[in-house]
Amino acid sequence: MNRPGNQKQQEEKKNPAGKIVAVVIVLVVIAAAVMIGIRIPDTMELERQMDAAALAISNDGVTALAGAIEQHPRAANRAGAVLLVNEMIGVMVSEAVPKTDFRTLESIEKELNENTAWKPYASEANRKILADAWNEVIRRMQEEHDKLVDLKAVALRIQNAPVPRIADIAEFYDFKLPAGFAAARPVQMATAFAAAVAIKNQELAASILGDASDPEALRAGTEEPCRECDSKGSVPCRSCTANPGKCPTCKGTGVMKVSRLVDNQVQATEQPCTRCKGTGECVVCKGTGKRDCFYCKGTARRTNTDIAAMTMKKGLKNLIDQIDAQAGELERLKSKATP
Ligand SMILES: [Zn+2]
Ligand SMILES: [Zn+2]
Ligand SMILES: [Zn+2]
Questions:
Q1: 285 and 218 share a domain?
Q2: E-strand stretches of 78-233
Q3: Average per-residue pLDDT for the chain
Q4: What's the gap between Cα 94 and its chain centre?
Q5: What is the pLDDT of residue 23?
């Protein structure tokens, strides 16, 4: 009695399972078809553009990607690409703020206002991001300006003193440049070093040189070519002028003829040269025929305090000009910001 019923139940159980499997297979096939279908050239090309844009975030990258989005309206990843453009703009703006990089902000603003490719991204949200960044950059520039006033004051003291004071040079050198002025550090170092050399303060000069990643660049501003050696760094060896590099005793042969009396007869024999121990080389210059110039110690350059003073003056003027330019830009941006 139970058997047929059981069988029916079993069939009923089997059938829905079979249907589910069939539906799943159909769904998988559809999904696969859709996946293949959406990986059309438009999508792939846009993906390539997105990868390239994300690698080097720049105004040009935004322009290129925005253009690609317009060119491939059917691409499946269009929304993602639009999102990426907005993110790129956000990243550029937020990275410019801590560096008080107002030029980047200005360039982004210009693109948003004038570049037709950027039009879809000149949204309220992006305008707000930019406006907030402007406020923050101007606030930071004002802060930097207030600090730079002190640097300018000490630079002017050094510039106007008949003989710069060590304390002023040290203060100038130790002055911590604000973020927007970080690029001026090499000039600041070279100027301080030149000032220390100009006043012949070896200790200060050496300590600045010790901090430098490129000491040669600092030295260059305080030196002139050595005239004593025609900028060669070396002069001819005085011991071997006749045969440069050769031992003058054995004339470079390495052997000496010695006459000896053997059994009342004079015998000429040869033995290694006692001066060069048989090498034949001039022992003073080790066979090079030259020695380091005494005046420049072989560097071919000599420190000149007049040149150092000139470098110092140029560096001070450069920094003062940069500080004045920053003040000018700040004024210009402030007047632009106030409606
Ligand atoms: Zn010799
Ligand atoms: Zn020699
Ligand atoms: Zn020399």
A1: no
A2: 223-225
A3: 90
A4: 21
A5: 80
Task: Give the total number of structural domains in the chain.
Answer: 3
Predicted local confidence at residue 185, as pLDDT: 95
Q: How far apart are CA 165 and CA 185, in angstroms?
A: 21
pLDDT at 11 over 80: no
pLDDT in tens, 216-235: 999 999 999 999 999 999 99
Evaluate whether residue 22 is within a structural domain. no
Residue 143 lies in a domain: no
How far, in Å, is the centroid of ligand 3 from the Cα of 292? Answer: 8
Compute the distance from residue 257 Cα to the ligand 2 centre, in Å. 22
Determine phi and psi for 279, rounding to 5 degrees.
Answer: -80, -25
Spatial distance between the Cα atoms of 319 and 156, rounded to a whole number of angstroms:
10
Residues 63 and 171 in one domain: no
Whether residue 113 is found in the same domain as residue 74: yes
What pLDDT digit, counting tens, does each position of 45-101 carry? 899 999 998 888 999 999 999 999 999 888 889 999 999 999 999 999 999 999 999
Residues paired with 258 in a beta bridge: 269
Query: Which ligand has the nearest atom to the CA of 295?
Result: 3
Q: Report the distance separating Cα 269 and Cα 280, nearest Å.
A: 18
195 close to 312: Cβ distance less than 8 angstroms? yes
Residue 1 has what pLDDT? Answer: 46
Least confident of 10-19, 34-43, 158-167: 10-19
Cα(121) to ligand 3 centroid in Å equals 64
- On whether both 314 and 216 belong to a single domain, the answer is yes
- pTM exceeds cut of 0.85: no
Beta strand 290-292 with 234-236 is antiparallel
Domain around 330: 152-222+304-337
Do 55 and 100 share a domain, yes or no?
yes
Residues 45 and 94 in one domain: yes
* Residue pair 175/143 in contact by the 8 Å Cβ criterion: no
Which residues have CB less than 5 Å away from ligand 3 (the ion)?
226, 228-229, 293, 295-296
Distance 282 CA to ligand 1 centre (A): 7
Give yes or no: residues 214 and 318 share one domain.
yes
Two tokens, residue 25: 């297979």
User: Ligand 2 centroid vs 270 CA: distance in angstroms?
Assistant: 23
Hey, what amino acid is at 124?
A: E
